[in-house]
Amino acid sequence: MAENLIILGSGCAGLTAAIYAARANLNPLVLEGSQPGGQLTTTSEVENFPGFPEGIDGFQLMDNMRKQAARFGARFEVALVEDADVESDPITLKTASKEYETRSLVIATGASPRLLGVPGEKEMYGGKGVTTCATCDGAFYRDMDVVVVGGGDSACEEALFLTRFCSKVYLIHRRDELRASPIMAERAVSHEKIEMVWNTVVEGIVPDENGLVTGINVRHRENGEAQTIDCKGVFIAIGHIPNTAPFQGKLAMDDEGYLIPEGTSNVLTSAPRVYVAGDCADHVYRQAITAAGMGCQAAIEAERALGVI
């Protein structure tokens, strides 16, 4: 028998959708994917989610949301969807070992940040000095020197945001000019707190005795000169990869693979009763609270659609 609603992903978007859908008696099934809890589970402290004036550990926040969804009847399975037929009725989802059928679907699979792939990066990612979100973590680096890696609009925005807190921001780019729009590039290059590090690649991130970032090893691409830049935080801003591969060619996406919502709901995809929430559609804000808001919208839209079938 087909499920009423399957939710793909268990980050803020997916779990909020699960809470709303479960309270609406849809008995939703959440397929948690390869990272149960999403990216927030790697964040040591979340200070900008409403309702927690002292902040909350990222893993604890997601665990709380999961328990809340389960309390109202949401069910959970660890499964990674590899293929989907969104035009069939019911919608069909395939994993390596199982096939699911559902009357409606919420895709909340998120996006994975592109990383540099250098020594020390993964070891210090999430709470130890390496991050991909200045809005989330910038305030932790007040009066400290930090590094931003990248050359597009996102990198410039991250660097400019960090100047509100940090004493100095090194913006490292592998070329001799930024890829960012002219106005963003000008703002970054001319800012008194931002020092441009041109034609330079990152070769490794240096930890202290406690495993926290203490510097970054770089090399100039033209003259081969190596140096270590002392810093307390490394913000990687070289883009994200939306986790939408199973829906390539089946749902409307932009050139980067982000799902494109249609209509007035802001969460309906190009297929009926298939909704999207969170970072797999939103490449502008990428915040826990905006993902949660989209999850709420998607669940309400699914409930309304199921009510008239």
UniProtKB/TrEMBL annotation:
What the entry lists under Pfam families is as follows: Pyr_redox_2 (PF07992)
What's an example Gene Ontology biological process for this entry? removal of superoxide radicals
Q: PANTHER family, alphabetically?
A: THIOREDOXIN REDUCTASE 1-RELATED-RELATED
The major lineage groups are:
Bacteria, Pseudomonadati, Verrucomicrobiota, Opitutia, Puniceicoccales
Q: Which cofactor does it need?
A: FAD
Question: Which GO MF term does the entry hold, naming one?
Answer: thioredoxin-disulfide reductase (NADPH) activity
Record's cofactor remark = Binds 1 FAD per subunit.
Q: Which GO terms describe its cellular component?
A: cytoplasm
Catalytic activity reported: [thioredoxin]-dithiol + NADP(+) = [thioredoxin]-disulfide + NADPH + H(+)
Quaternary structure and partners: Homodimer.
Coiled coil regions, renumbered to chain: none
EC number per UniProt: 1.8.1.9
- This chain's protein is named Thioredoxin reductase
Every FAD/NAD(P)-binding domain range:
4-295
Family membership: Belongs to the class-II pyridine nucleotide-disulfide oxidoreductase family.
Organism for this UniProt entry: Puniceicoccus vermicola
Q: Give the InterPro entries listed for this entry.
A: FAD/NAD-bd_sf, FAD/NAD-binding_dom, Ferredoxin-NADP_redctase_2, Pyr_nucl-diS_OxRdtase_2_AS, Thioredox_Rdtase
NCBIfam families linked to this entry:
TRX_reduct
| Class of the enzyme per the UniProt entry, highest EC level | oxidoreductase
Name the UniProt key words of this record, in alphabetical order. Disulfide bond, FAD, Flavoprotein, NADP, Oxidoreductase, Redox-active center
Name the gene.
trxB
